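job 3f2a | input accepted
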Amino acid sequence: MDFKKTKLLYGLIAKNQSLSKKRHPMFEKSTFMKFFIYIFMAFWAVYLFFLGIALYAGFEESSREPYDMINGGMIFLLALDFYLRFGMQETPAQEIRPYKLLPIPQKFLLNVFLVRMALRPYNLFWHFLLVPIGFLSIPRFFGISGFVGFFVGWWLVFVVNSYWYLLWRTLVNKHVMFVSIPTVVYAALIYFGFFHFDGPSWLAKASMIFGQGLIGWNLLCYGALVLLLVLLFYVNRVIQARSVYAELAKEEKVSKVKSIRFGFLDRFGEVGEYMKLEIKSALRNSVVRKQFLMGIFYMLLLSAMFAFSDVYDSSPFWKVFICVYSFSCLGVMTLTNVMCSEGNYIDGLMSRKESVLSILRAKYYFNVIMMVIPLIFMMMPVSEGKVSAVMVFGCLFFSAGVVFACLFQLAVYNNNTIHLNEKLTRSGRGTRMQMLISMVSMFAPMLVMMVLINLFSEQTASLVLLLIGVAGTLLHPLWLRNIYKRFMKRRYENMAGFRESRNV
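job 3f2a | predicted structure (504 res):
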């Protein structure tokens, strides 16, 4: 394929991808939601910009230059960037399916999607933080060319992180054991690279040297970065291609599954039956099982970090962060797609419309019960005096009564069926509404808690959080019924979306 044809085909595929997003039902039907999301993105851009200025002012008082300080913390930014890509970044393999019957080489398609992944605006998101620090501190030593090197170098670093994320997401679909790899890697680097040192650690020094090399347009630094980028590009293409081939060639395997009755749930009637279905779905279905296991893993990780480590004891922010997300992370991961798995049998479900309310109740009770796991872990730091029992129970009930109430709103708007045994990741299929409510659910508890701590005291803030959470939890029959009524008003629109997405 010559260059002219390649360029033309690339342009057509890019145009097709752009049109597919613009023609999404949520894109066309919710003008207010688009406006709100743009405002939300603009807020974070402005916030990061002024945070960068504040960090520059703070770094000016240190013995090192501000650009050295930000380069030294490169691993922290990369870890944060990695986990924020959940729900925002699709895998190229899943995008190939609509083109599989067209006479277009699969390798070319993968190349197109990988290149488009590198050129995504999100890879420049953290530059709202980095640009003010770099612009105020670099030109006086290295000139404008140094600032440009800082800008380009960090962009390449985030592109590398993007390809690393893609590789991990694909491997997770092959085996759930891969779920722990990035956490282990980042945690080990942060722990052994930054703690137990009086001065700058070896990792911070290495990051500073590498960052200075990028600023100075050092060929060795850029060569190493480009080499890593090319390597990850090639590995991603190979792995993604194999995933597609496996998906297209797979055969349905019928195997005997030992039935587990969960008889103790029989006493709860119809709600108990749907709770059985939730448990069995988490155990048997590939996509649901992986979401559930990932949520459990991060729940256990956060709880264990707080229980068995003293690193976060001195920081109120990290104490609140871990305490809040230990209880809410599983719900954020699983309830974002609430009612999406039911899209596989939505027509049969609508023959008994009253069952939808029982399903919602079963999902709520199941997720609330799962919060017992982090609660057990949290009893250890409570007994050691690291955190108050009021804060722990405040975070628990706030998650159950407020965070879950936000996440369950998605039951009204979700209309994309989850293919339960799909091998390819479907993270990029999420709607704008899912992204919005997930972000609100993630940041609202932290925002409320930190505002209350600054206005009052930690104990008062925890008590207020507890009271709000208990009220929301006790009122769950009312807000679940409200969600049910709104779901029924939109049932025909949602059913059409479920049917259409089942055939994709």
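job 3f2a | Residues 1-11+23-250 form one domain.
job 3f2a | closed
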